[in-house]
Write a structure and sequence with these properties.
The complex is a heterodimer of chains A (442) and B (309).
Chain A (H helix, E strand, L loop, with lengths): L1 H5 L2 H4 L14 H9 L8 E6 L2 E7 H8 L4 H5 L14 E3 L4 H11 L8 E5 L2 E6 L1 H89 L5 H17 L2 H33 L7 E3 L1 H16 L3 E7 L5 E3 L1 H18 L4 E10 L2 E8 L6 H4 L19 H11 L3 E7 L3 E9 L9 H7 L1
Parallel strand pairs in A: 3-4, 7-9
Antiparallel strand pairs in A: 1-2, 4-5, 6-8, 9-10, 10-12, 11-12
Helix pairs in contact in A: 6-7, 7-8, 7-9, 7-10, 7-14, 9-10, 10-11, 11-13, 13-14
Chain B lengths: L4 E5 L3 H11 L4 E5 L2 H10 L4 E4 L8 H11 L4 E6 L4 H9 L5 E4 L4 H20 L2 H7 L12 E5 L4 H10 L4 E5 L2 H10 L4 E4 L2 E2 L2 E2 L1 H10 L4 E6 L4 H11 L3 E4 L4 H20 L1 H4 L10 H22 L1
Parallel strand pairs in B: 1-2, 1-3, 3-4, 4-5, 6-7, 6-8, 8-11, 11-12
Antiparallel strand pairs in B: 9-10
Helix pairs in contact in B: 2-3, 3-4, 4-10, 8-13, 9-13
Chain lengths: 442, 309
C-alpha cells in the first residue's frame, strides 16, 4: 500500500536535474565539466544521445585515461563516446524505491565511482546519488518497521480481546447454569415462605379467637349468648382452616426450606471456590480440590448424562494459579460431556510420580479423529458450529499448562473416547514469553 | 362440582410438597417424580391440569407433555421450569403444546390463577369429548363454503410462494411484507392461520400475534423465524398461544405439514367453540407492546366501522 501511493514520488525526490553531455563531446571538454562547480557533487557525468542515456563517464575513469602520459595530446579531441561505460546504472522513475535500491545495490561497483541515471519511459531525466537512495531506503524501512509494530500491537490487543471473550463465554455459560440450578430451591423456598406467612396470619387470627373465648369464660359478666357466639366464630374458622394439619405440613416445608437455603449456599460457595477471586493469584494448592470445585460447577452440564468416576490419589500441593487450573479442568470436563452421545463415563485420575502431579481425564465419547488430533490445541480450531465455540478453549488450556511449566497430551480413538493427560511439576518454572496472553487469562 | 384434579411432576420432591400445599385446599392433588407413572395416572383417572418440570433425568418435560397430549388430550398442560433454554421452549410449543410456560421461582398468586383458569377450561373440554373431535380432525378438512384464509407476515416472499404452490388451490393466501399491511389485512377479514416472522427488519411484530389471539382465539399462529430469544418465545407461548415455532430456514415439507395440521385445528375449534378457550391468552406484559396493541385495536375498529358503513 505504502509503495503504491508513493510510486514515482520516491524516486523523483532523488533526481538532480543535471545537463547531460553528448557522446560527441571531446574528452578535453569533459575535463572542464568535472572542474565546473555545477558538477562538483557528481561522481560521474551522464552521456545522452537524442534524449536517451547511452552511458556514464566517471571521474575515476576519466582520471585513469587523462592522467596517462600524452593522453591529452593523444585523446583530447576524441569524442567521449569512445571512453564511456556503455552500461550505466538506470532507474525508471515510477519504480518502487525498494526495487530501484535492489537493482542499484546489485549492479554498483566498489569502490563507488558512479551515480545512477533516472529515466522516464527510457528518456533521460537526471542523475541520482547512490547514498541518497540508500538513505531514502533506510527511511522507508524505518516507516515500515513502525507500521509493523503498530500492526503487531493491534494483533496483540485483539488476541487479548478474543481470549477475554472466550473467558466470558465460558463464564457466562457457567453462571447461567448455576443461576438455573438456584431457581429450583429458590422456587420452593419462596413458595413455602409465602404460604407460611399466610398460614401465620390465619393461625394468629384463630389464637385471637381462642383468647377472646378464654377471656369471656373468665369474665363473670359475659353472657351465655356472648360465649356461644365466640364459639360459633371459632367453629367457622376451624372449618375453613385445618390448623393442626396445616401446621404439621408447614413444619415439613420449613425443613425443606432450610434444606433449600443450604443448597443455595452451597452453590454460591462453589462459585466462590471456583472463581477464587478472593484468593491470591498463586498459592500452594492440592489439585484434587480444583478438580472437585470444577466438578461442582460443571454439575449442571454433567449431572444428567455423565457418570463421573474419581480416582483421586494422594498428591502433594503444588504452587499454581488455582483459578486458571479450575478453568482448565472445567473446560476438559465440559468438552468430554459434549463429546458424549447419550449416557457416558468420565474417568478422572490423579497421581504423583517423578516429581510431578499427573492428572488424566478420560471419556468414552465419540473421540477425536486422527487428522485433527494435532490441531486441537491450535487457537481458533473448533469442530463446533459457528457461534457455539470460539476455538480458544483448548488453546488457552494449553497455554495455562505451559505457563505452569507442565505438559498436556491427548490420546484418542474415534468411537472409543479421548484421554487428556496433564503433568505439572511441583515447582514450576515460569515460562516468560507466554505472559502477555495469560495476563488476560488470569 | 367436585374438586378438579391436579397432577404435579418434578424430580425434586420439595417442589412437589411445596406445590401440594399451595393447591391442596382447592384441588385433588396427585404428585410423582416419575414421568412414566404420571402417564399411567393420566390414563387411569380424569386429570384436569398437569404441571411438569422441564429438566428431569428420565424424560424432558416437553416430551412428557407430548405423551400426556396423546394419553389425555383434554388435560391442560403447564410447564414450570427453572431452565429457560431455547430448545426446551421450542419443544414445549411444538410437542408439548403447553397452555403456559412458567418460570421458577414462581409467583404463588399467578400460578394459582393460571391453574384455576386451566382447570375450568379442562372441565369444559371434558364435556365436549375432545377425543372424538381430535380423531375427527384427522380426516381432510371439508372445504365446502369459504376458503380458509392464510396470512403470511414476512419480509421475504419465499414462504408465501411455497405456501401458494402447495395450498394455493385450497386456501386464499395473503402475503404482507410489513406490519401495516398485515394489520390492514387482519382488519378486513378474519384469518384461519397466520404464518409470521417475528422481526420485520427492526420491527418486532409479536404484538400483532398477541392481539389477533385476543380477538380470535380460533386463529392459529405459526412463527417461522431465525430470531431466537428465549424470553420472547416464552412470552409468545403465554400471550399469543403460538402453536408452532419453526426456526428458519424451514423446509417446505415441514412448513406445509404444520400448516395443514393448523388448518385442521382451526376447523376443529370453529366447530367446537367450547374448545377455543383452550388457547386463551395471558394479558400482554410488555408496556411498549401494550401501546402497540392498543393502536392496532383502534385502527381495526375504525377500518371495520368504515367497511361496515
Amino acid at each position: 500500500m505504502h509503495q503504491a501511493t508513493q510510486t514515482g514520488k520516491e524516486i523523483f525526490s532523488l533526481v538532480n536535474t543535471v545537463d547531460a553531455i553528448s557522446p560527441d563531446c571531446p574528452l578535453e571538454d569533459v575535463a572542464a565539466f568535472f572542474t565546473h562547480p555545477k558538477y562538483s557533487k557528481l561522481l560521474s557525468l551522464p552521456v545522452v544521445e537524442e534524449g536517451r542515456p547511452v552511458g556514464m563517464i566517471s571521474r575515476y575513469r576519466f582520471m585513469d585515461i587523462y592522467l596517462k602520459r600524452y593522453a591529452r595530446e593523444l585523446h583530447g579531441k576524441r569524442p567521449i563516446r569512445k571512453f564511456i561505460d556503455g552500461k550505466p546504472l538506470l532507474v525508471e522513475l515510477d519504480q518502487p524505491l525498494a526495487v530501484a535500491a535492489r537493482h542499484v545495490l546489485a549492479n554498483m561497483q566498489f569502490p563507488l565511482t558512479e551515480d545512477f541515471i533516472v529515466t522516464r519511459h527510457g528518456r533521460y531525466l537526471g542523475v541520482g546519488f547512490v547514498m541518497d537512495l540508500l538513505h531514502a531506503m533506510e527511511q522507508q524501512m524505518l516507516a515500515n518497521t513502525m507500521e509493523l509494530e503498530q500492526a503487531n500491537a493491534q494483533l496483540k490487543s485483539s488476541q487479548l480481546a478474543l481470549v477475554q471473550s472466550e473467558k466470558m463465554a465460558s463464564l457466562g455459560q457457567m453462571v447461567a447454569g448455576i443461576a438455573h440450578e438456584i431457581n429450583t430451591p429458590l422456587g420452593y423456598v419462596q413458595n413455602n415462605v409465602a404460604m407460611g406467612q399466610e398460614l401465620f396470619q390465619q393461625v394468629q387470627s384463630m389464637i385471637a379467637g381462642y383468647e377472646a373465648l378464654v377471656d369471656d369464660l373468665l369474665d363473670e359478666q359475659a353472657t351465655e349468648e356472648q360465649i356461644a357466639a365466640r364459639m360459633q366464630q371459632i367453629v367457622e374458622k376451624r372449618a375453613d382452616v385445618n390448623a393442626q394439619e396445616m401446621l404439621g405440613e408447614m413444619q415439613g416445608l420449613m425443613g425443606d426450606s432450610l434444606y433449600g437455603i443450604a443448597q443455595i449456599s452451597e452453590l454460591v460457595l462453589n462459585l466462590k471456590n471456583f472463581s477464587r477471586m478472593d484468593a491470591a493469584a498463586t498459592e500452594a494448592v492440592n489439585l484434587n480440590e480444583c478438580i472437585t470445585s470444577a466438578l461442582n460447577i460443571g454439575r449442571n452440564v454433567l449431572k444428567d448424562k455423565v457418570e463421573v468416576i474419581k480416582e483421586l490419589g494422594d498428591i502433594p500441593k503444588i504452587s499454581c494459579a488455582p483459578s486458571q487450573l479450575n478453568q482448565v479442568f472445567l473446560n476438559l470436563f465440559t468438552n468430554a460431556a459434549q463429546a458424549m452421545e447419550g449416557q457416558g463415563k468420565l474417568h478422572i485420575k490423579t497421581w504423583f510420580a517423578d516429581g510431578a502431579v499427573h492428572i488424566s481425564v478420560a471419556d468414552n465419547g465419540k473421540g477425536i479423529p486422527e487428522e485433527i488430533l494435532t490441531r486441537i490445541f491450535d487457537p481458533f480450531f473448533t469442530t463446533k458450529p459457528v457461534g457455539e465455540g470460539t476455538g480458544l478453549g483448548l488453546a488457552i488450556t494449553h497455554q495455562i499448562i505451559q505457563k505452569h511449566g507442565g505438559e498436556i497430551h491427548v490420546d484418542s480413538r474415534v468411537g472409543e473416547g479421548a484421554c487428556f493427560h496433564i503433568k505439572l511439576p511441583i515447582a514450576p518454572a515460569i515460562v516468560p514469553h507466554q505472559r502477555a496472553v495469560l495476563e488476560a487469562v488470569a | 362440582m367436585s374438586k378438579p384434579t391436579l397432577l404435579l411432576i418434578d424430580d425434586e420432591e420439595r417442589i412437589l410438597r411445596s406445590l401440594r400445599m399451595l393447591f391442596f385446599s382447592g384441588y385433588k392433588v396427585h404428585m410423582t417424580t416419575d414421568p412414566h407413572e404420571a402417564i399411567r395416572m393420566l390414563r387411569d383417572e380424569r386429570v384436569h391440569v398437569i404441571v411438569s418440570d422441564q429438566r428431569m433425568p428420565v424424560m424432558q418435560g416437553s416430551e412428557l407433555l407430548r405423551l400426556a397430549r396423546e394419553a389425555s388430550p383434554a388435560t391442560m398442560r403447564i410447564l414450570l421450569t427453572g431452565y429457560s433454554d431455547l430448545d426446551a421452549s421450542i419443544a414445549s410449543v411444538n410437542e408439548g403444546e403447553v397452555f403456559r410456560y412458567l418460570m421458577k421461582p414462581w409467583d404463588a398468586e399467578e400460578v394459582k390463577k393460571v391453574v384455576a383458569d386451566a382447570a375450568a377450561i379442562a372441565e369444559a373440554s371434558f364435556a365436549v369429548q375432545l377425543h372424538e373431535v381430535q380423531l375427527h380432525t384427522e380426516v381432510p378438512v371439508d372445504m365446502a363454503g369459504a376458503k380458509p384464509r392464510v396470512l403470511i407476515i414476512d419480509h421475504d416472499e419465499s414462504i408465501a410462494k411455497t405456501v401458494h404452490e402447495t395450498l394455493g388451490d385450497r386456501c386464499e393466501i395473503i402475503w404482507a411484507a410489513d406490519a401495516q399491511h398485515a394489520m390492514e389485512e387482519l382488519a378486513k377479514q378474519d384469518v384461519s392461520v397466520v404464518v409470521s416472522d417475528l422481526m420485520l427488519g427492526a420491527t418486532n411484530v409479536g404484538y400483532i400475534l398477541k392481539t389477533i389471539k385476543q380477538l380470535n382465539p380460533q386463529t392459529q399462529c405459526i412463527v417461522v423465524t431465525s430470531f431466537n430469544d428465549t424470553s420472547r418465545l416464552i412470552e409468545l407461548i403465554n400471550q399469543a398461544q403460538i402453536t408452532r415455532f419453526l426456526p428458519k430456514p424451514v423446509s417446505k415439507g415441514i412448513l406445509v405439514r404444520n400448516l395443514e395440521s393448523m388448518l385442521e385445528r382451526f376447523h376443529a375449534l370453529r366447530n367446537q367453540p367450547a374448545l377455543q378457550n383452550r388457547q386463551t391468552v395471558a394479558p400482554i406484559s410488555d408496556p411498549q407492546e401494550k401501546i402497540q396493541a392498543g393502536n392496532f385495536l383502534g385502527m381495526l375498529g375504525r377500518l371495520r366501522a368504515k367497511m361496515g358503513a
